[in-house]
Design a protein that fits this description.
Blueprint: E1 2-7, E2 13-18, E3 41-44, E4 51-54, E5 90-94, E6 106-111, H1 125-143, E7 150-157, E8 169-175, H2 180-196, H3 201-212, E9 216-219, E10 223-226, E11 235-241, H4 253-270, E12 291-296, E13 317-322, E14 324-326, E15 329-330, H5 335-340, H6 349-358
Antiparallel strand pairs: 1-2, 2-5, 3-4, 5-6, 6-8, 7-8, 7-12, 9-10, 10-11, 11-13, 12-13, 14-15
Helix pairs in contact: 1-4
């Protein structure tokens, strides 16, 4: 992998990740951009104890542009985009409309391919491996920023999720705090460790799923994917490396090598969930499955609030889920979910796992 860092016209950082060492990345951003101005502010809710990012400047961000005006495609002739060069393998740049910036953290965009009409599932294993290298590198770099305590790599796919740019891409957030969801995991981890005299809750969850087997979607030498026992979403898969590590940096070479094969298979299965006779006649012509793919990594900030827990107790894992519950129907977060954070799942986890096994690549 070759990494080349440059600056856009408004001063934001842009980094090319190339599979080969022979690429020269010296294209200049020719757009007449003013310096980026952000109004990000993090406010803490005194009742819930969580944080909210106030970012009014995001109201002006680009919204569903036509394909010929896509800001994530390479620049071509007089059509200038966020990527100055005429092609790229993988590219990362600071978000022009960040939710978090400066002392409040950092937001980056990750473009998986220059092909506007592709999706992550269309990538080759080599391309997916390069994205993994970019995620890992950015995790390492952002972890050193004084304003960042936790690094979150994720992809939103599909207009139903709220994606406003159709080009295949994801994002990386560097939070200035430990997120509420991670804090919940750390508290459960600490309580279990104390109650069992040192047991690791993540290890036991994975071991139970493997022993039961009914919710395992696929397993390999280095990875295991399963629908969790108490899945929140209709189709939700958690992907763990078999050797527990706290973050992407901890993955060994064997896990890195095998990841693209495993992850691409999961994504392709997600696109087949609602196809075929078992999905009902509404499944015909179903658009690609909308999903969120989210990497959970140990925070880099202090863990004093979680007594007895250190970074190595945390288990890196990816959560992949869709908001579609059946053909043509979405799972909306209604009163119980939005008002009380109590999820109601219409699809039994065992049935979801069975369906994801049925649509395996032949």
């Amino acid at each position: 992998m070759k990494k080349t860092s440059t600056r856009l016209a408004d001063g934001r950082e842009l980094i090319y990740y190339d599979a080969g060492d022979d690429k020269v990345r010296d294209a200049v951003d020719r757009r007449p951009l003013d310096p980026t101005v952000t109004t990000s502010e993090v406010r803490r809710d005194p009742l819930l104890g969580d944080s909210v990012a106030i970012a009014s400047h995001r109201q002006g961000r680009i919204y569903h542009p036509p394909a010929n005006e896509c800001p994530l495609c390479p620049s071509s002739g007089d059509r200038l985009s966020e990527i100055p060069d005429s092609s790229y393998d993988v590219v990362v740049f600071e978000n022009r409309f960040p939710s978090l910036a400066g002392d409040s953290g950092r937001c980056e965009v990750v473009c998986f391919t220059s092909d506007h009409d592709a999706s992550f599932a269309d990538l080759t294993e080599a391309q997916a491996g390069l994205v993994l290298e970019a995620w890992t590198d950015r995790t390492a770099e952002l972890s050193h920023l004084p304003s960042v305590e936790q690094v979150f790599c994720f992809e939103n796919r599909g207009a139903e999720i709220g994606v406003t740019l159709g080009h295949p891409h994801g994002q990386i957030y560097g939070y200035p705090f430990i997120t509420p969801r991670t804090a919940l995991m750390l508290r459960s981890l600490a309580a279990h460790k104390e109650a069992t005299g040192g047991g690791n809750l993540f290890d036991e969850v994975v071991a139970r799923e493997l022993a039961d087997g009914s919710r395992v979607v696929l397993s390999s030498e280095n990875w295991v994917a399963f629908v969790p026992y108490a899945a929140h979403w209709p189709y939700e898969v958690h992907l763990y490396p078999r050797r527990r590590v706290p973050d992407l940096l901890g993955l060994d070479e064997a896990a890195r090598t095998e990841f693209p094969q495993v992850y691409l298979e999961l994504l392709r299965r997600f696109d087949r969930i609602f196809d075929g006779p078992d999905s009902g006649k509404e499944g015909a012509g179903e658009p690609p499955t909308p999903y969120i793919a989210a990497w959970h990594q140990a925070p880099f900030g202090p863990l004093e609030d979680f007594e007895g827990v250190n970074r190595d107790d945390f288990a890196l894992h990816l959560e992949l889920f869709t908001i579609r519950r059946t053909s043509g129907k979405l799972k909306f977060l209604a009163g119980s979910e939005s008002g009380m954070n109590v999820f109601i799942n219409d699809v039994p986890p065992e049935s979801a796992a069975q369906r994801l096994r049925e649509v395996a690549s032949s």
